[in-house]
Amino acid sequence: MTQSTLDEQETMRQKAHQIFDMVKGFARGADEVEITLATNIGEYLRFGHNELGQSQHSKSRDLSVRVTTDRRQGRASTGRLEKSLIEKTVQKALAQAKAAPEDPDYLPMLGPQQYRSVERYHEATVDAPADVKAGHVIFAIDLAKKNSLLASGVLGTSADHGSILNSSGLEAHHRATTGHFSLTMDADNGNQTGFALSTFADIRDLDAEKLAETALERARLNKSQADISPGKYDVVIDPAAWSETLLFLTVSATAGYSPDFGMRQYKEGRSYLSGRIGERIMGENITLEDDAYHPLQTGPPFDGEGYPKSKLTLVENGTLRNLASSRISAKRYGDAKPTGHELPLPNPLGELPTNVVIRGSGPTKTPDELVEELDSGLLLTRLWYVREVEARTKTVTGMTRDGTFLVENGEVKQPVRNLRFNQSLLELFTNIEKLSEPVRNTSFGGPTMIQPGVLARDFNITSVSVF
User: Which among 149, 147, 134 has a CA at the least distance from the CA of 49?
Assistant: First the structure.
């Protein structure tokens, strides 16, 4: 760590303590006080039709205050840190606590904890000059122009700082950098597109040239698309293609996006997994873990109340083994142990694994090797507009986009029109035969996924899409 990095880290901690002292002063009469302070600084280059369109710098700050009194809880938040608004936020939290019923799950706030170190903050990402980022974009634009295509997308980086402090002496801090480069190339007003995406913590890991070449190749191939009949097809799903789809493996949209791999949901019968511990729900070659310490993962080593996160095997060789838990579940059920997966309290939803890693048994393949081992079927480079249809089987519907290709004898032969699918994720994970090395890809508001590309049998295509 450089001296400037250490100084910045110390400044953020000092700021958190200053605000916490202010909150405690305004919260006289509360039994306990907790603050969660989060700061995000983002920089984004947006481009379209082969032109840089917007350079954006954003900074957001969010202070969330939780107070307890007589076993009642209240929480209020503000995006501004002026003294008067902090006081107003504290008063809202106090008013909520006084009006709330006594909480049967009330537990005293956590005291000091020990956390395993994770290093997810990269100065290279924070300090990357604008001309370096613009150079990545210009390379993609120039490549598109040379091939009579149009390039559109966004290159974004962000730095996040988070702190939890409470009146029982808990103090937890975390900081991280993240980034993403999404790129679409288009040759026919949206009818001949190719897409590529890369996410990173250290911008030096971004291979912008490879990303641009991937999008270019897919767009060039995606012309004169053929129609195919509905039916079940063997498929290769690109590693970056199914983030939006995998979100529904961990939450149930039909239950208000309630998490599924939590102990409280399981015990209350709110999860599609309820009553299925010990049952094989996926193929024997599939293991799902929640591992906050995986080198590709993001986020802090503690949960929403500051409890240290544990590595947890959720599905082992296809069989459901464990669930995310919390202090509340341990109190309620006795046979549960906290695993560090609580959301900020009060929390009616239950526990949520936030660092999911999908693993396969046996040697991994490259995405190209997966295609080479597909005798006949489809290469899916992007799935989008995915929605849950049936929670018990985890059946989702959606469409392919930005390059769907017919594969024969291990070679891409023909682009096809976009397709609509209806597919049970449990059946899909049962039919996976081979996997590539996992990559990091964040879901939409859900867990960070470390996800592979897969070769799977009998993917259910229902129709040709009109889009």
Answer: 149
Domain count along the chain: 2
Task: In whole angstroms, give the CA distance from residue 359 to residue 342.
Answer: 24
Give the residue from 363, 354, 278 showing the smallest Cα distance to 316.
278
Q: Are residues 131 and 245 in the same domain?
A: no
Mark whether 203 and 231 lie in a shared domain. no
Q: Which residue in 257, 316, 307 sits closest to 113, CA to CA?
A: 307
Say how far apart CA 83 and CA 85 lie, in whole Å. Answer: 6
- pLDDT one-digit tens code per residue, 378-435: 999 999 999 999 999 999 999 999 999 999 999 999 999 999 999 999 999 999 999 9
Preceding omega of 346 cis (within 30 degrees of 0):
yes
Q: Please give the model's pTM, rounded to 2 decimal places.
A: 0.94
pLDDT band (50, 70, 90) for residue 3: very low
Domain of residue 193 covers 3-212
Identify whether residues 430 and 354 lie together within a single domain: yes
Residue type, 38: A
Q: Does residue 400 belong to any structural domain of this protein?
A: yes
Examine the domain organization and report whether 176 and 241 are in the same domain.
no
| Integer angstrom CA distances of residue 15 from 38, 50, 173, 233, 437 | 11, 42, 12, 56, 41
Torsion angles phi and psi, residue 234, rounded to 5: -70, 140
Separation between Cα atoms, residue 191 and residue 214, nearest integer Å:
17
User: Do 186 and 215 contact (CB within 8 A), yes or no?
Assistant: no
Q: 430 and 388: one domain?
A: yes
The first and second tokens of residue 316, run together, are 């082992």
Instruction: Give exposure, 134-158, as e/b (b: 16+ Cβ within 10 Å).
Output: bebbbbbbebbeeeebbbbbbbbbb
Tens of pLDDT along 131-170? 999 999 999 999 999 999 999 999 999 999 999 999 999 9
